[in-house]
Amino acid sequence: MSKTIIIDPVTRLEGHLKIELTIENNKIQAAKASGTMFRGLEKILVGRDAFDAPIITARICGVCPVSHSYVASVALESSVGVTPPTNARLIRNLILSANFLQSHILHFYHLALLDFMVGPDMPPWRPTLQRDMRFSATENERLFKHYDMALDMRRKTHSMGAIFGGRLPHPSSVIPGGVTAIVTKERIDQYKTLLEEVSGFVVDTYAGDVQLLTETYPEYSKMGAGPGNFISYGAFFDDDPHSKTLFKSGVLLGEGTEEKLDPVHLSESVASSWYTNASGTEVLYPKEGAYSWIKAPRYKGQVMEAGSLARMKVNSGGRTSGGLLSYDLSHPSVLSRHQARVIESIELIKGMRRWLDELDPSAPVYRAFALPQSGTISGIGLLEAPRGALGHWFTVENNKILSYQIITPTCINASPADEKGNAGAMEAALVGSDVGDPQEAIEALRIVHSFDPCLACAVH
Amino acid sequence: MNISRRDFLKYCAFFSASLGLSSLQIGRLGEVLANPTGPSVIWLNGASCSGCSISFLNTINQSTDVGAVLIESINLVFHPELMSVSGKLAIKAILDTFERGNFILVIEGGIPTAYEGKTCILWSEPAIAEVSSNGSDDRNDIDGGNIREVTCEEAVKRLSSRAAHIIALGSCAVFGGVAAAGENPTAIKSVAKILDLDNLDRGKKVISLPGCPVHPDSLVSTLVKILNNETLEVDDFGRPKFIYGKSVHSVCPMLGKPRATTYGSQDKCLIALGCSGPRAKSNCPTRKWNEGVNWCIGAGTPCIACVEENFPAKSPLIKYNV
């Protein structure tokens, strides 16, 4: 006989997520992921000055505001063929990469790890599920010390971003045309000092703890697979025409060979979302069969997975190594998602050092431009956020926003079923997994958290 | 507590790290916290981006006294990003604390009222009337019983009735903020409006800490004052004057300097670029952000008055072509 279990709220993630599981003989037969908060940021943008987009869209997400400011700026610039000065590209990369490290450290230690270890006997660590906790007392104690250190480290990554961004969250200096913060030797040195400290933590501590998790929970390399299709828009522009990225773009469909990304193949279904089928954007609540504010993006009609794993797979074809680590990422799983994040962090730090060296204190950071005052202008910005593929689409007339559309990584990962009834990536990852005790479905939480869902982004 | 405050500080966990104090030792911590004394904190996340939660994690303060009061006094019983447990046990933490009363209620985000508030669901609970923490079991099993979804509006109204202090955190909770901008698609209201407070009551009943995001020190220093039973002097919006007393412009280090007419210069007044410093009351110029490394104007960006009632109504928020 099957049971239906609701977990609401799912904590240790950004925003509002409800999970409904149908469990039979301790196996998940069906899963529904519901984004339970809607703000309507796309509507809020309509009628505003187009250059407000980077500032307003940053407010979609307090964890990854930099990505939204960056993508919105790039979308505006590319619509009229403008590229920002070299320094601006480097500074944007340095603010964004600092925030990538922030996001990955926060995710592993403060959001995900408590599914595997027990914190001290006080809130917010208690109460906690204590089933299947396998670390020894010594390991558990060490991991919690690292949880504590990681609070310091993620704060320092934010300080790195703020050196050039003004502040974090919600940096102020990323604007259409470049950045507002100038390059000084003092700022470069300040950033470098913090980066080396954080780098030490990532290489010595974070990587070691992912390895310990890998050794202690080996069967999680086979749990939580998901759709097996991956999408990456490419991350961190690495030349001035914006034609190259540090982590490249690409699409992997099943066992097929890698394809070139073409955004024309992206579509959004609202079959299970609280919007009218005709418009795709107008709220319809309640709605028969709908269970989420998240829409269901698909690529060539396929359910996709986005995030570090997608980026690392697209970049390496499966095998990756960073520092002393070498992981086979060919099978998507709870563990491979954690492994991909730490490997990406190590790779990213190499890029950050190079970008710091390329900064030129005597060169400009901003190139003024204006949008044409006649006709309708449309633009697209596609770039990777910490959690995966992020796209902004807009149309503007006489500097005023006519329409604005955003598809976020968690929209891709935590989507509900589409019109063909195909479950979203996170839902698909849950189905088929064994659950030791349906009342304490820690296995399900481990799978959900491995995607690092960001619900405010997913719905916006 | 049988342990000296200094020793305690040495070993304390979450807040110690965020306050830049030294590291912890789990065994010692458990011993110390066996008899928690201070009020509990319930932190609700309404229609928000969680930026104020993330900003809170950046807390660092040179004063160990601030840390001491906070560490010894707080039980963060519910926080959607940080708490370990999900589902029913998480809700039970709220309901148990509600039964006891005398807690601090922190509300981050605006409160939607369109569609009966159902654009922001905070949790699901069994659909029996008046769920009590004593009677309800901790099971997530919903077979054989309906469940009902608790909206942010309901949660704020219910929980605020027994809260010792209510803190509206960030501009969304204080004024509606970004989610209430433009056509306000989900009819977002501020905490004060949901609780039907006029301006006079507002200052007394809800402590308002706007900012997009809030500065971590604003929250921590306010908590310290509350826990010390200090009387907070507040303005009509309920904003503590020690934080929101002077305009950014009046204490801006760029005041009186040559005016910038484009971006990418240093040490210039940004007023011609649309700086809203004159109408923004905040201590940003003296406190700065992120361990003091910078702040908006320090990075060459005009102030957008993110602490004020009408943020982000102005458009464009800053000027580009002067």
Task: Describe the protein.
The complex is a heterodimer of chains A (460) and B (322). With 460 residues, chain A is α+β, with helices and mostly antiparallel strands. Chain A has helices spanning 41-45, 53-58, 65-79, 86-112, 137-165, 185-216, 308-316, 334-358, 409-413, 425-430, 442-450, 455-459, and strands at 2-7, 17-24, 27-35, 174-175, 178-179, 229-237, 245-253, 266-269, 296-299, 319-322, 325-328, 376-385, 388-397, 400-407. Chain A has one domain (2-459): Cytochrome-c3 Hydrogenase, chain B (Orthogonal Bundle). In chain A, the strands form 6 sheets. Chain A has a 3-stranded antiparallel sheet with strand order 1-2-3. Chain A has a 3-stranded antiparallel sheet with strand order 12-13-14. In chain B, the strands form 3 sheets. Chain B has a 5-stranded parallel sheet, sandwiched between helices. Chain B has a two-stranded antiparallel sheet with strand order 4-8. Mean pLDDT of chain B is 82; it is low at 1-35, 62-71 and 129-138. With 322 residues, chain B is an alpha/beta fold. At the A-B interface, strand 1, helix 1, helix 4, helix 5 and strand 5 of A face helix 2, helix 3, helix 4, strand 2 and helix 6 of B.
Which helices and strands occur, and which strands form pairs?
The complex is a heterodimer of chains A (460) and B (322).
Chain A: E1 2-7, E2 17-24, E3 27-35, H1 41-45, H2 53-58, H3 65-79, H4 86-112, H5 137-165, E4 174-175, E5 178-179, H6 185-216, E6 229-237, E7 245-253, E8 266-269, E9 296-299, H7 308-316, E10 319-322, E11 325-328, H8 334-358, E12 376-385, E13 388-397, E14 400-407, H9 409-413, H10 425-430, H11 442-450, H12 455-459
Antiparallel strand pairs in A: 1-2, 2-3, 4-5, 6-7, 8-9, 10-11, 12-13, 13-14
Helix pairs in contact in A: 4-5, 4-8, 5-6, 6-8, 7-8, 8-11
Chain B: H1 5-11, H2 14-18, H3 26-32, E1 40-45, H4 51-56, H5 64-73, E2 75-78, H6 87-100, E3 103-108, E4 111-112, E5 121-126, E6 147-151, H7 152-160, E7 163-169, H8 170-175, E8 188-189, H9 191-194, H10 199-205, E9 206-209, H11 216-227, H12 241-244, H13 284-287
